[in-house]
Specification:
The protein has 227 residues and is mostly helical. It contains 10 helices and no strands. InterPro entries: AA_ABC_transptr_permease_3TM, ArtM/GltK/GlnP/TcyL/YhdX-like, MetI-like, MetI-like_sf.
Length: 227
């Protein structure tokens, strides 16, 4: 057992940093996508809101694993993609495809959380701000968005954890992240339980840290559970 730890921990730590990098980039892009899609959903333009609705429906209604396969083994093998340097740079690398797939998937869920927060702002407060002479941008920046974030943040923070756990599927498209290294170690040592316990602890460390940061943000926003 001691030999396993001496051999496995350094290898899994390497995968840990790859997982962390994929997860954080995915969360960053998912947050931007989620906010953009939520704003599109709240517009009165049917084409804009319909596009955001279609994006949310497709990516929430299909498994992340299938999305990964379609991006890497599907779009990534098209000749038209290979002929475009920028597209080939994106789809030729498993890690970049994993970031894109997780961002698109998580962004769809985040968009619904943010949209719900935006729609939960009482119309009376918006009308009162408008009567005070505030512009639409000022109303959004000072009133609607801060109130919406308070409502949406608990669901948003849950999605952060799901995005990190989603990185474990990156090993299915030949990305050697934490789960990929764990599977390799398992095949070499045949110590399945011990290897994946260590990997699970490392995943837990990431998510506990994220949840701790989310808790601090919730305190700063004045959010209290059960209220």
């Amino acid at each position: 057992m001691i030999e396993l730890f001496e051999h496995a921990v350094p290898v899994l730590i390497e995968g840990f940093w790859i997982t962390l990098r994929i997860g954080l980039f995915s969360i960053l892009f998912a947050s931007l996508l989620g906010l953009g899609a939520a704003l599109m959903r709240t517009t009165r333009h049917p084409l804009v809101s319909g596009t955001a609705f279609a994006y949310s429906t497709v990516f929430r209604g299909t498994p992340l694993l299938i999305q990964l396969f379609l991006l890497y083994y599907g779009i990534g093998t098209l000749e038209s993609v290979r002929d475009q340097p920028a597209l080939w740079w994106l789809f030729s690398d498993g890690a970049r495809c994993a970031i894109l797939a997780i961002a698109l998937n998580s962004g769809a869920y985040m968009s619904e959380a943010i949209r719900g927060g935006l729609q939960s702002v009482p119309a009376g407060q918006l009308d009162a701000a408008a009567s005070c002479g505030m512009s639409r941008l000022q109303i959004f920046r000072r009133i609607r968005f801060p109130l919406a974030i308070r409502q949406a943040f608990p669901a948003y923070s849950n999605e952060l954890v799901l995005a990190i756990k989603g990185t474990s599927l990156a090993s299915t498209i030949a990305v050697m992240e934490l789960t990929g290294f764990a599977r390799r170690l398992m095949s070499q040592s045949y110590l399945i339980v011990e290897t994946f316990i260590i990997a699970g602890i490392l995943y837990l460390a990431i998510n506990v840290t994220l949840l701790g940061c989310a808790w601090l943000v919730e305190r700063g926003l004045g959010i209290r559970s059960g209220e």
